[in-house]
Amino acid sequence: MAVYKRKGKEDAESEESGHDARRSRTRQALIEAALDLMSEDRTFSSLSLREVTKAAGVVPAAFYRHFRGMDSLGLELVDESFRTLRAQMREVRANPLPAEQIIHGSVGLYVRYVREQERYFRFAIRELFSGAASNKLAIRNELRFFISELATDLALLVRDRPVTSSDLQMIAQLVVNSMVMLTEQVLELPPERPEEEELLIDTGAKQLRLIFLGVSLWNAKPGKK
Amino acid sequence: MAVYKRKGKEDAESEESGHDARRSRTRQALIEAALDLMSEDRTFSSLSLREVTKAAGVVPAAFYRHFRGMDSLGLELVDESFRTLRAQMREVRANPLPAEQIIHGSVGLYVRYVREQERYFRFAIRELFSGAASNKLAIRNELRFFISELATDLALLVRDRPVTSSDLQMIAQLVVNSMVMLTEQVLELPPERPEEEELLIDTGAKQLRLIFLGVSLWNAKPGKK
DNA sequence: TGTACATCAGTGAACGCGCGTTCACTGATGTAC
DNA sequence: TGTACATCAGTGAACGCGCGTTCACTGATGTAC
Questions:
Q1: What is the pTM of this model?
Q2: Which residues of A touch B179 (CB under 8 A)?
Q3: Which A residues 48-77 have CB within 7 Å of strand C?
Q4: What stretches of chain A adopt beta strand conformation (E)?
Q5: Is CB count within 10 Å lower at the N or C end of chain A?
């Protein structure tokens, strides 16, 4: 049994040859294949290992060189989905306070991002509502993370009033919930319908404005529950 | 080929004997079986015809005496789900205007109703986000119906201000969306956790109050978009 | 009321098919010397 | 540089299994007379 020094993992993997490059190319092909197969109304749990490998252009047995089974591919997809989404959120969060323009602009950015990354959002939203327990839990945790971050931002908005942190969470949850429902609507749109997309953005932005109007009155008067 | 007079369909079907009674008993057993099999994290599309018949206690071929295939069973489930939900909504709607008590009370009623009819709501919410296109469409239409009804009710709330009917729809959609997300949270609760259930009701009610606070300011000042 | 017959929900066997998983293998890539 | 050998991603065949659907059937229920 000999131990060899291995080449470090290459950054640009797609055009390489060699064991490592081939490995990660096939692995990526399996991930892409699974996402593509879910583009219509298929659930992840309804995909078969064999059809994923077929779509990826490898033999069924090759799957096991990369994942222990479909479950483990599912977890990988959750990770991939939220890795990019978290990065995006960090960017958007770097924006200033929510004034009218900013709300509409942020919703627009988000919607266009959903469009761009349709396959990941489709996967995530389906797994959130009907996926395996482990995926569901992982996604709920990611959402809770977004909610907490948003609650932190909201604290600045209401710093002149006594709003409890659990109320901040409640408000942030309402906002994130609205974004989840908006996401579903965007994914439901037929492709290439910019007018309808704008309509969704307008309505989504109005709903956020409505919520922020409510926030501006929250605990403003002594009529607290 | 002789034509016989048939007995009229009996109202109390469960304890009867005879062709018709047996027919509707098996049919109901298939429906119940499908709902029960979805109680964990299974999607309707992941159920097999054979396991549904097995759970219903009949042979696979018997399925075809009642439904053309699984698709047609799915449509039947959508119908059943919303038939009862619509009746429930009619009752709740018979209540007066949303003051604080009434919001909390209505949310409480709704949540307890979801608990009671868990299987139907689970089916509906899963199909909404990841079901077959036809089921998805049917459910979206039912939701649109609720939104329109709610918009009509909201019109009374804002009759002193110039709120467009599309804004009323936008507001009603926000409310219904929040209820959808609340439903998912209720279904996610482990059974028999009254404290956590109350917490969900409190939070849901607060979110509605927040929205209605926003509504009370909507177009109140000339600062219209 | 009694008998002969029609109806039809449910049966049980059969079919070809795609499934997940296993296994010994192949052959290109990489290493040791 | 050249050679012998190790590594290992991907192959192809095989397995037993549950699947959807078909079909002629059975036997209880219901009707005609």
A1: 0.91
A2: none
A3: 48-51, 54, 60-61, 63-64, 69-70
A4: none
A5: N
